[in-house]
Write a structure and sequence with these properties.
Length: 581
Amino acid sequence: MNESLLPVAAPARTRAAVAELLRPHRALALTAFAVMTGSTAVGLLVQPLLGRIVDLAAEHGSVDAITTTVALLVAVAVAQGITAGLGLSLISRLGETTLARLREQFVERALGLPLERVEKAGAGDLTARVTADVSLIADAVRSALPELARSLLTIVLTLGALALLDWRFLLAALLAVPVQVLTARWYVTRAVPLYAAQRVAAGAQQQQLLDTVAGSSTVRAFRLEREHSERVTERSRSVVELTMRGVRLVLGFYSRLHIAEYIGLAAVLTTGYWLVRQDSASIGTATAAALYFHSLFTPVNAALALLDDAQAATAGLARLVGVTDQPPPPAGRSVGAGDVDVTVRGLSHAYRPGQLVLRDVNLTIRHGERVALVGASGAGKTTLARLVAGIQAPTAGSVLVGGVPPTALGPTGVALITQETHVFAGPLSDDLRLARPDATDDELRAALDSVDALDWAEALPDGLATVVGNGGHRLDGARTQALALARLILADPSLVILDEATAEAGSAGARALEKAVTRAVDGRTALIVAHRLSQAAVADRIVVMESGRVVETGTHDELRAGQGPYAALWEAWSDTRGSGP
């Protein structure tokens, strides 16, 4: 198995996790079990009543006696229908409640996973777990779980009813059990690894599809369509092959179950014939025994067949529990804006062993200081920003923010805004309150006003109540970035890291957004990866990077006068713009 994938829980741990989820709902579980037991017991009166009708017919009994028996059959059917419906409803409620809690735990832990860990696993693995795996478990909860509970109860109580008729009927029926047990064991030993492999293959397929679709423009630009199509085909073929292996496994499973049915029914009929000949049982009793065993076909086959759904759902459940078992992120330490400075010492980092992208970087950012990182693409600016933000752990060296590692800070410690901001579906006010749930409408407007976004926000069809994102009002790049900056003001972090946060604005809105950035970081310690050198020019200090190293540091005027790498960058950038800021 790919070690970079997110963890999968062991079977014992998965069972323990389910028990923990069910523990708060023990009363509901016991009530559902009691109702289902009563419903099944009532239903088992049908076979003896039918046997009674057979005896009355054989003895030429009165019509009134037969009519009474039929009336009892109708009453039993009605009672069983009502109690079965109630029992299945209670079981479904139990399952859905438990599944809802599992979903909540999964999302809570998934959001707390280190981004480096998620990136190594790939978005496909996490997406497959929260979509396909959750769907499998949900289907099992809604259909398989109630049916399995009813089937198991029916099997146990029916065998008890056979013993009450005559213990020899029970022995005859049990002749089918060895075949069924061997069949179940044969199936489970093959199904468990098969369905686990299917889930992994599905995650790899989804990852490949996401990569291909997300990078479609790059794929077309480099004429890589055939290569990516072949990769998608290869991953899809792997999923299809594993699925067909599962189909063949199920077909073999059912063929073995049919053999068990034939053995058991033949044994019960033979036993009934012998007992009737010995006057040890009536024809009606033998009929009831045969009907009892025949009625086991459906629950036994259903219970064993549900192993198929159960194995698939268990594989998905183990993948969810593997994530929910991850330790929660540390509570973090709150620091005030005046307490925050950044100290980087001997920092080196490699995404792949032996391929350093940062080399012995030393940097100090005093509290309240705005530092701009500039340099050519590939110089290591974004990597340094991610390490300071605590998204990744450095290969060597240390990063301290306010005297502690950035990962030890609370949610208001460090905020990172990149050019890849997201607009969440829902009212604009809710999108803003993601940063501070208790913010008032006046505070939301103040945050928007600080980044010059209040006018267009209030001009939306429903103002702050306008639904934005997917299915709602679409925001362009500049407005999306302004929304992210407004969230930043509401969150009020001690350290702000902006990684080309104005890159999506376009030249028309660049200056306005740069002013909004200046207001958003005012009074805060800030590290800004400058996409436009006009941002660097107004920073307190500029750090120039080349090939993973810091090669210059100073103010805008100092570096221009120094005729070094920054001066060359500024001249080239000014020439493309026609003039400076």
